[in-house]
Amino acid sequence: MGDKRGNVRLVGAVALNGVEVSGREARTLLGLLGAAGGPVGIDAIGDELRTDVARVVRRLRAEFGPDVIAGGRRGYRLGDGIEVDLHRAAYLVGQAETALGNGFPHAGSRAVEQVLELIGGRPVLAEHPRAEWAERARARQAELLRRAWHTGASCALQERDPARARTLAEAAIVADPFDERAYGILTHACIAAGEPAGALLAHECLHARLVAELDTLRRVAIPA
Questions:
Q1: CB atoms within 10 A of CB 163
Q2: Cβ contact 56:25 at 8 Å
């Protein structure tokens, strides 16, 4: 992905180059720019920070170097060479999917492990639970994790590691109990492990959840 000279972490507490950034305004600016992945207009930044944006930019440049943030009066973006964990994860997920499709499951598994290390475990931009831009970033994180779990589990099946496939498929199901693809992978993993009862249980579990959801929707649609 090119020569990178720094990194912004959005998972958990916002950090720059491994250092947790002090000051909510500074963390918000970095989070906003990192989530955007491109320029953000000065008005949008000002609405979020509700303070002198240029002052916050000066502080970050003084603390982390003049190239960390680029831009001026019209808006700002992260500087060239600053990598964001969420964007790096998106690149790695794509690499994993390509490796799987080309018949290189081991390479796909390695990329998936990097994705899970980067963005697994904690939510993106947890300090901003109600901001729309942060919600979009969390939705992106959830989608990337879903793809990583699916791809990693499929790679594990090709590598004849059904236990690993099962672990990843179950992680996807915990995140989304209606993830039909994950249930399918879990079924294959159980069969590959010589556990047909587990495969049947997975199928029955999905069926029961779908029936319960359909029943709930009917109750809502047809009031008593």
A1: 10
A2: yes
Task: Using the 3D structure, point to which of 58, 83, 108 is the last residue of a domain.
Answer: 83
The dihedrals phi and psi of 71, each to the nearest 5 degrees, come to 120, -170
Dump pLDDT digits (tens) for 3-18.
557 999 999 999 999 9
Q: What is the pTM of this model?
A: 0.88
8 membership: H or E segment, kind and range: strand 6-9
Helix (H, G, I), strand (E, B) or coil at 69: strand
Q: Is residue 66 part of a domain?
A: yes
Strands 6-9 and 82-84: parallel
Domain that holds residue 185: 160-224
Give which of 210, 149, 216, 200 is closest to 178, Cα–Cα: 210
pLDDT in tens, 29-86: 999 999 999 999 999 999 999 999 999 999 999 999 999 999 998 999 999 999 999 9
Q: For residue 94, tell me if it sits in a domain.
A: no
